[in-house]
Specification:
The complex is a heterotrimer of chains A (about 290), B (about 325) and C (about 250).
Chain A: H1 2-33, H2 40-58, H3 62-89, H4 93-115, E1 130-133, E2 136-139, H5 140-162, H6 164-174, H7 176-181, H8 186-208, H9 218-233, H10 238-259, H11 261-264, H12 266-278
Antiparallel strand pairs in A: 1-2
Helix pairs in contact in A: 1-5, 1-8, 1-9, 1-10, 2-3, 2-4, 2-8, 2-9, 3-4, 3-8, 5-6, 5-8, 6-8, 9-10, 9-12, 10-12
Chain B: H1 7-25, H2 29-54, H3 63-80, H4 84-108, H5 113-133, E1 143-144, H6 160-182, H7 185-195, H8 197-202, H9 207-233, E2 235-236, H10 238-241, H11 244-257, H12 264-282, H13 289-304, H14 308-314
Antiparallel strand pairs in B: 1-2
Chain C: E1 2-11, E2 14-24, E3 29-33, H1 40-47, E4 55-60, E5 63-64, H2 70-75, E6 78-80, H3 93-101, H4 108-121, H5 137-150, E7 155-159, H6 167-182, E8 186-191, H7 194-198, E9 203-208, E10 211-216, H8 218-223, H9 225-232, H10 236-245
Parallel strand pairs in C: 3-8, 3-9, 6-7, 7-8
Antiparallel strand pairs in C: 1-2, 1-4, 4-5, 9-10
Helix pairs in contact in C: 3-4, 3-5, 4-5
Classes of the chains: A mainly alpha (about 290), B mainly alpha (about 325), C alpha/beta (about 250).
Family (chain A): Belongs to the binding-protein-dependent transport system permease family. LivHM subfamily.
Subcellular location (chain A): Cell membrane
GO biological process, one term (chain A): amino acid transport
Amino acid sequence: MSSLILPAVLNGLTMGAVYALIALGLTLIYGVLHIINFAHGSLLMLGLYAAYFLFSYLGIDPYLAIIFVVPAFFVLGYLLQRVVIAPMSAGSEQNVLLVTLALSLVIDNLALFFWTSNTRTVDIPYAWDTVEVLGAYLTKGRVIAFFAALLVAGLMWLFMTRTRTGSAIRAVAIEKRGAEIVGIDVNHTYALTFGIGTACVALAACLLLPTFYATPQVGYTFVLVAFTTVVMGGMGSLPGALVAGLALGVIEALGGLFLGESLGQIGIFVAFILTLLFRPAGLLGRKPT
Amino acid sequence: MMRLASYGQVALVVAVLAYLGAVYVMPSQVWMGFTINALAMTIVALSWNVTGGFGGMSSFGHAAMYGTGAYASAVLQVQFGVNAWLAFGAGIMAGALMGGFIGALSFRYGLKGSYFALVTLAFAEVLRICAASFNITGGGRGLQLAIEPGVAALQFNKDRVLTYTLLLAIVALVMALTAWLKYSRFGAYLVAVRENEDAARALGIDTYRVKVTAMAISGAFGGLAGAIYLQLWLFIDSAVVYGVAISVVALIGPIIGGAGTVWGPLVGTLGLHLLGEGAKTALHNAPGLNFVLYAVVLIVALRFLPQGIMGLAARIGAFGRKGGDDA
Amino acid sequence: MLEVRNLTKRFGGLVAVSDASLDVPEGAIVGLLGPNGAGKTTCFTIIAGFTRADSGSVRLNGQDITGMAPHRICGLGMVRTFQIVQPFAGLTVQENIAVGAYLRHDNRRDAMAEARAIGKRLGMGAMLDRPASSLTIAGRKRLEIARALATGAKLLLLDEVMAGLIPTEVTEIVGIIRQIRDEGHTFLMIEHVMQAVMSLAETAYVLNYGKMIAQGTPRQLVRDPAVVEAYLGHGAAARLQEAEHA
């Protein structure tokens, strides 16, 4: 058994990197807009389908598809916030959650209607090649996703701290009224942030597809994992999301190893409940006073 | 009991009652079957309404109580051979306990708003996975009741009219309990907690107890709905009774009909089912499209009908009597 | 009736309340004064059970209530109001008051009747059926008092009940408080505005930077150099004296 633990941990880390990438977008949106985007998983599902269709109709490799899908999803996210979420929720936190829940229902069920519940996969043999790391055999596609996630988290951090737009976003996140007074367009910044968050999830989709699949239901599975990651990482914290995503990947892999495939999924939700109850500020966060 | 605030609300309620009565004489059995489903879901909607409507604690995981009611009853009947009536009662109890447990844990640690919504969802997921993983709950195959129609086993599926009448009676009972709740001290405390928890505490209300009790009552209604589902279909599996669809329908109905009103959950759930059924017929049973429609209606209602259909109706021909009673 | 002894409360490095003590005898109207940020509201929230003190004790009618939950304290006969009024917005005025009245009446009819009677006593008869959210600031302040009174509590803690009111409204509230006191209630009231307390309170305490710096009749307090300095800044008392002598 013990010989299986290290490979499970390493595999968990590669999956966790994808969780982290999905959660980065969600936590960014929470940190700035202070809203919980329930449709985040559905947007991931859309991203998976976008990459799938680009591959199956135009033969575009999912890794190459990033340059088309990510900008398109940035625009999609921007418009969703501007046209649907902000106007329809009328400023109430509970309404935002309900509006994004409704949005996820619309997206998921339309996908089911148009694309059926068939499982779609792309055939990219090299993504399934294995790499030996510390005696464990890891899937190449997952290893690529792992390093891409670290890279994106780093780039995002640089963007937030080193650019004007990043500073504006941080200003709005901390003090909305103050930012307004110094001339920052808050609604635009909100939509921009939502767009970036959506672009992140689209990137995650492109990295995930080669070793995963697309179905209309896949969003719901991931949205709960993403929430768990965000809450464990401390709502709104980018480094927190990265660490928590990796941790959850490991928890899931070890859960699967010890409890079996079906019951193994429980680990993530139990982690979620425990975090919400005992450390609502996240594992790295300070306890609220 | 049922205090209505306007001619609009009276008209709405009369229309609902007229429809429910008309189902008896409609030539096609399809209407009755469809309304049976709508009434069964109305009970979950009424369950959500206790906490989400009166208490302002919006849950995204009412399937947790629904599924627990269904599974408790099914496990007792199938695995332990317990009498269906007793198992039915146990289902209600189990729902109440699950509601109380989730509430006690969540409120003990001060969860509110979106956090509470998400934690309830997570509980429903944990229970779904457990139910799908253990042998006693039938694992991935679910549980099937032995078919023995009759009063002894609480199985009336053969007689649609009787099933429908029983469901009408149960919905009426749960609504009467809701009305009683609304006009009781507990109801006033629950609304006070929703409107302003600090002020409620200052006025001598043990807000923790009020909230946990509300979850237990809501859980009892939810467990009841789950136990009814079992007796209607004689089969349950975890993906359905602990599924997200239950949690979603539980909250959309009351929000559209009017959260925190006695009639809202019935009006909303019935309206939604009519709409969904109409769309299904028009679109030749396309899967999932009824949920698209529900979701669009929900978004529109959140934006334009903050008090739901009952709130809209309250503004049509309001009675001279002043007051905030909107049934 | 109320004895507060040596309350201390720190938030991080900041000492919000430091070793504060006060007494409220039965039937009195006692003021708690101090400039903004002096720790008055923190003091209040501790007394009413909303915040735990780091040290010190609170006794109500001889019973130790330190650290007790707010609803239990209310049940023992002491109730607070809020500086930022907190009506139950979706309820009518009468239903708002009834929430308080339910503490002593377990059915709706009695609680609503009690609420009506109290509303009328406080001059809110015409507003009883209006939604609480439609009230003016003055109306909401009255509602706060009415709700508190409806719990049957004998000791009312009023947090800046005069703030934001125009002079005629202040006069009305002052009248109402006197009337309630004469019916057998006791008050501890926080006020930032000294004039309001001057006309009501027999005794007042002054907090500054979390410390009790003075106690006495309002008339004594306005002549107390420490109090004047707390309000007007360092050196103000001396300057005032000079001005008087000049």
